[in-house]
């Protein structure tokens, strides 16, 4: 994990709790008091964010000892002890909520991703589940990491990663009197040699134009299962096929069964439920 991308985030999160001190711990816990605390997974799930939690505790207490008992990506049962942290009691207690907030959300993302991947594998051995850029502002690096820990894959990290021509781009091109073929060729001419180009469509009658444009990937957005099946047949492996829009855990396997290569699920990050992890004194 690249901590230079998240250390500032950790420090800001700690400041939310400690900018004006800790009115409870500052008065009740002695400075020279030490303790052991145990992180416990309260429900079945996939753990993620272990190194982040460690970093949170060590930001307040650099002498803290972190003993992981599992690793990110492990599928675990409820009541599993996932780590022990030892150090200055006042610092560990003050770091508790921040460490748990990170781990609970990241583990929620990993758990939800694992559920989607498991459903897809029932009908399609190769189809990938990916997240999107619909991430919590400032948390994209961590949330995309959590998707990978759940067995998923990452889509674009930023707008610079791949050219993606979406509905608004197409509308603005039409306003200029320009075609999709023109847009794809312009990107080929002016972009790096490794550039991949994806085009979004939401109707079956748009698919042939994308094939003719010689794009690399086509995104079938909010299409019916019948239209997706027809699109996959028409494309005939000439492009990678991504499906997106309205993807739920109940619908993901039927979508995968149409033969698409990728299913992107914004809900992995914008609608995820954090899972319950506690920090116990024993």
UniProtKB/TrEMBL annotation:
Q: Which residues form the Quinolinate phosphoribosyl transferase C-terminal domain?
A: 109-280
Q: Which Pfam families match?
A: QRPTase_C, QRPTase_N
Which SUPFAM superfamilies does the record associate with it? Nicotinate/Quinolinate PRTase C-terminal domain-like, Nicotinate/Quinolinate PRTase N-terminal domain-like
The UniProt entry, under InterPro entries, shows:
Aldolase_TIM, NadC, NadC/ModD, Nicotinate_pribotase-like_C, Quinolinate_PRibosylTase_N_sf, Quinolinate_PRibosylTrfase_C, Quinolinate_PRibosylTrfase_N
Q: Quinolinate phosphoribosyl transferase N-terminal domain: which residues?
A: 22-107
Which reactions fall under this protein's catalytic activity?
A: nicotinate beta-D-ribonucleotide + CO2 + diphosphate = quinolinate + 5-phospho-alpha-D-ribose 1-diphosphate + 2 H(+)
GO cellular component terms, A-Z: cytoplasm
Entry keyword annotation includes Lipid biosynthesis? no
Glycosyltransferase as a keyword of this entry, yes or no, is yes
Keywords, ordered alphabetically: Glycosyltransferase, Pyridine nucleotide biosynthesis, Transferase
EC numbers on record: 2.4.2.19
User: Pathway involvement?
Assistant: Cofactor biosynthesis; NAD(+) biosynthesis; nicotinate D-ribonucleotide from quinolinate: step 1/1
Any Gene Ontology biological process: quinolinate catabolic process
GO molecular function (one): nicotinate-nucleotide diphosphorylase (carboxylating) activity
Q: What does this protein do?
A: Involved in the catabolism of quinolinic acid (QA).
The Swiss-Prot or TrEMBL record describes its family as follows:
Belongs to the NadC/ModD family.
Its quaternary organisation is: Hexamer formed by 3 homodimers.
**Name by which UniProt lists this protein:** Probable nicotinate-nucleotide pyrophosphorylase [carboxylating]
């Amino acid at each position: 994990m690249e901590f230079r991308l998240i250390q500032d985030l950790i420090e800001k999160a700690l400041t939310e709790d400690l900018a004006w001190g800790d009115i409870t711990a500052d008065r009740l816990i002695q400075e020279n008091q030490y303790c052991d605390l145990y992180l416990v997974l309260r429900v079945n799930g996939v753990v993620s964010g272990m190194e982040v939690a460690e970093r949170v505790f060590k930001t307040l207490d650099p002498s803290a000892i972190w003993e992981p008992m599992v690793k990110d990506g492990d599928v675990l049962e409820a009541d599993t002890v996932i780590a022990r942290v030892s150090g200055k009691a006042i610092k560990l207690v003050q770091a508790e909520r921040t460490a748990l907030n990170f781990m609970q959300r990241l583990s929620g993302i990993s758990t939800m991703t694992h559920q989607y991947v498991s459903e897809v594998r029932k009908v399609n051995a190769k189809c990938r589940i990916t997240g999107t850029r619909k991430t919590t502002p400032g948390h994209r690096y961590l949330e995309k990491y959590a998707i990978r820990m759940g067995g998923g894959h990452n889509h674009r990290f930023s707008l610079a990663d791949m050219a993606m021509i979406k509905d608004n781009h197409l509308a603005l091109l039409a306003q200029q009197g320009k075609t999709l073929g023109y847009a794809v060729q312009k990107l080929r001419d002016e972009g790096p040699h490794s550039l991949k180009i994806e085009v979004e469509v939401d109707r079956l009658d748009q698919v042939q134009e994308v094939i003719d444009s010689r794009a690399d990937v086509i995104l079938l957005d909010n299409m019916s299962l019948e239209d997706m099946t027809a699109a996959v047949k028409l494309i005939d492996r000439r492009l990678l096929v991504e499906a997106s829009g309205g993807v739920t855990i109940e619908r993901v396997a039927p979508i995968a069964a149409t033969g698409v290569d990728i299913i992107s699920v914004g809900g992995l990050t914008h609608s995820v439920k954090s899972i319950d992890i506690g920090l116990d004194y024993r």
